[in-house]
Amino acid sequence: MRKRQPKTYTRLTHPLVRDTREEPLRPASWEEALERTARGLARNRGAFGMFSCSRATNETNYVAQKFARVVMGTHNVDSCNRTCHAPSVAGLSAAFGSGGGTSSYEEIEHTDVIVMWGSNARFAHPIFFQHVLKGIRGGARMYAVDPRRTSTAEWAESWLGLNVGTDIALAHALGREIIHAGLVNEAFVERATSGFEEYRALVEPWTLSLAEKVTGVPARAIRELAHAYARAERAQLCWTLGITEHHNGTDNVRALINLALLTGHVGRYGSGLQPLRGQNNVQGGGDMGAIPNRLPGFQDILDGDVRAKFEAAWNTVLPRHYGMTLTEMFEAMEDGSLRAVYCIGENPAQSEADSEQAIRRLRALDFLVVQDIFLTRTAELADVVLPATAGWAETEGTTTNSERRVQRVRRAVTPPGQAREDIDILCDLAARLGHDFAYAGAEAVWDELRALSPDHHGMTYARLEEHQGIQWPCPSTDRLEPSYLHGRLWEKDPARRDRPAPFGIVRHDPPVDLTDETYPIRLTTGRRLDSYNTGVQSGGYASPLRRGESVELSPEDAERYGVVVGERVRVTSRRGSVEAPVWVDPALRPGLAFMTFHFPDEVDTNRLTIEANCPIAGTAEFKASAIRIEKLPVVTYVR
Question: Considering Cα of 381, then 385, then 387, then 390, what sign does the dihedral take?
């Protein structure tokens, strides 16, 4: 394959402004940049959206959502949680009233069965996978459910290679087999759930033989997983973007939750449901209220008592309706009802599905301000660029990981040049727009959050340091709660059990972008171990594992198209085309291709993906595009 010369992103060290849309960005003073930003935001009140950051601290996310709600008067605040795990939050909330994973990482070391569904955790979540390996070495059996035979699947007792987009069909077949084999935890179902009879009728048609035809998974493998999961004393069901990044991602999550309800594998130590987050603070951003339907502490905006509490603390009046999701904000750019965006640490120009459409919409804004550490593709489109600090090394604060553990982060190095703390920038802008957001530091922000969020009340900075992190909920300053959620479901007293967990009545719905004779290959996407998201932070660093972007094909498809490793081909979907070198991967089945988003400056994979969104969570179907592969003509040179 050709030698790569990846684009490297230099650190932002001073503010940048653009005098006209036709002129390039130029250096500016902080005073000029902040004044321009304040004017641009002020003229667009009522048509504003905030993109907050899943890599920034909890404290930054808290102040960002407060800025949107108090200064700009809107709940239009969201983050890349919408791109990846919003269906997990929606599905878990619908079942249990809480959007967090139900178990701790430690529990997977002490469980009996581990199901990794739509997750190549060995590459995408390598730290978590170390806990998985400890569990396997301790005797746990792991099952991998994934269209590809991934690096994670190599550690599994069984790999269930399902067809892309057939997760609900497989989950229903597992549920039916558990019911027919008499393996339902009847006491738990009767006591702690609702809707079982409707669920039983829903899954009844999904026999093992029908599921084999639809999913491509052998009936015996489905039966084996059903019995192993149901018979286990303790079992963990883990998933990631292979489940959520579909047009019916929330339904996919509900289908998996149903299996835990059916068997009682939730609300106990070692048994639970674990959505694996890919960035350091995806969970925390949502917890801090950087989402359009919840205030900090995952408190519902539509609850009058909740609103009154925040209105009193913030001396404001909050809108009585939900804001727009990230997806809806991009749609509102199209019709002009959203005219200004404040983007903190996100790169939607390259991370959104159908990237050409996303860039066109961002260009149509009246005003775009980007606050980041690099001049990303999104920042290149901005009217003002504000240089910020790196949340993991140059600032004080906290983050929250996938197991709901809040941990301290500390300033280790001095930020370069004129880069400023995210919180200081937001507070300065708030003051210019008539609001006093004065905080003595990150701890003062955290203490304000603790006063408003019961789940975080007991987490003082001192206690976080003492315990090296604490999982929410932590309502008390003198005790810690169990590491798992929803133990209430096992209480004998109905009053202490609270509301039952409902089964999700969801139906199999194939991918929107169907394959046919013109687009015969199913493209799915994911991550590689050596790179990170759109490559802005990782692309400039060498790795012996990195080989750049390619379109990965099965050996059979490579032979059918007459292409070899390293040969450049044209990859085309119904939305656009890219050129990419070929890589042959025997872990792929015929008809399935794989690409990543790590190198969009070389191969913009998101030109191919479809903006078919989950109607509940707004997440796009990144995992199921229809493509074709075309050989490029041989170029000959004549002297």
Answer: negative
Structure tokens at 262: 């059916």
What is the model's pTM? 0.94
pLDDT over threshold 80, residue 545: no
Instruction: Tell me how far apart the alpha carbons of residues 605 and 23 are, in angstroms, rounded to a whole number.
Output: 29
Cα separation, 228 vs 632, in Å, equals 48
Under DSSP, the state recorded for 69 is I
Pairing mode of beta strands 299-300, 367-372:
unpaired
Reading the block at residue 538, the tokens are: 């990782």
CA 261 to chain centre: 24
pLDDT digits (tens, 9 = 90+) for 205-222: 999 999 999 999 999 999
Q: Tell me how far apart the terminal alpha carbons of the chain are, to the nearest angstrom.
A: 26
The least confident of 303-317, 378-392, 604-618 is 604-618
Q: Is the pLDDT of residue 1 over 50?
A: no
Q: What is the dihedral of CA 289, 292, 293, 298, to 10 degrees?
A: -10
DSSP 366-390: SEEEEEESB--TTGGG-SEEEEB--
Strand arrangement of the beta sheet that strand 113-117 belongs to: 158-160, 141-145, 113-117, 235-239, 272-275
User: Residue 561 class from Cβ within 10 Å (0-12 exposed, 13-18 middle, 19+ buried)?
Assistant: middle
Neighbours of 631 (CB within 10 A): 13
**What region, left, alpha or beta, does residue 533 occupy, with left being phi > 0 and alpha being psi -120 to 50 degrees?**
left
Q: Which two tokens stand for residue 545?
A: 């594992």
Structure tokens at 8: 């490297």
Phi, psi (deg, nearest 5) at residue 193: -130, 170
**Rounded (10°) angle between helices 219-231 and 208-215:** 110
Annotate 149-165 with b (16+ C-beta within 10 A) or e (fewer).
bbbbbebbebbbbbbbb
Q: For residue 366, which phi and psi values (nearest 5 degrees)?
A: -70, -35
CA Rg, the chain, in Å? 24
Q: Which two tokens stand for residue 284?
A: 């925390």
CA distances from 142 to 10, 227, 394 (A): 42, 13, 39
Among positive and negative, which fits the CA dihedral 568, 5, 609, 160? Answer: positive
